[in-house]
Amino acid sequence: MSELVLPGEQIHAQHVNLKLGPGLLQLSNVGQDGFIISTRAGELKHSANNSKWWIESNSRRYIPASQESVVGVVIARSGENWRVDIGSAHAANLDGLAFEGATKRNRPNLKVGSVLYARVSLAHKDMEPELECFDAQTRKAEGFGELKGGFLVRCSLKMSRLLLDPTHFLLPLLGSRFPLEAATGLNGRVWVNAKDTRHIIAISRCIEAVDPDGGGLDESGVKKLLGTMDI
Description:
It is found in: Cytoplasm; Nucleus, Nucleolus. With about 230 residues, the chain is an alpha+beta fold.
């Protein structure tokens, strides 16, 4: 059973490699008294091994958290860097060298409007977030980078977390009907692509219909919706 918490409540989360996600703030050393508080109202969640804890709340305003994957849109170039809209209060910075194999002479040619799948490398309440487009451990792209073609769907933060749950029905159900590509960011944005434009439209409509902020359809409801589409 999920535990509902309110802002300011103390959270007793302890682990050797404890990582705090959105909605939680460490006010003192965890090893001493575990003084962690919630900064938002919602459901207290944790990973299977209790190493990562966060607050699940249905919101459309994304608060960046380190190591989270996001889908962003380039809005400006600043010298050798880019400014990227990730749906947070402030635009994020993306260094020109934060790509696999990037050098001063060989770096991506991103334009305003380019869609990116990136990871938050720095998130602090007093600083603008920073992004990187490679895996911090392997230094390989691992799927991060520019997303070409396709369509960007906006949804609630809760919906994006649902889509990242491997047990959620929607993407496997759609994938059984036709080939598709999807990149889901924890910032409430999902990039989708398919060979047929009708399939892209179907994916977008299904995401919006399943979103708790939308129709909140279950699996049977989505199957009925797909039956009404020309796919």
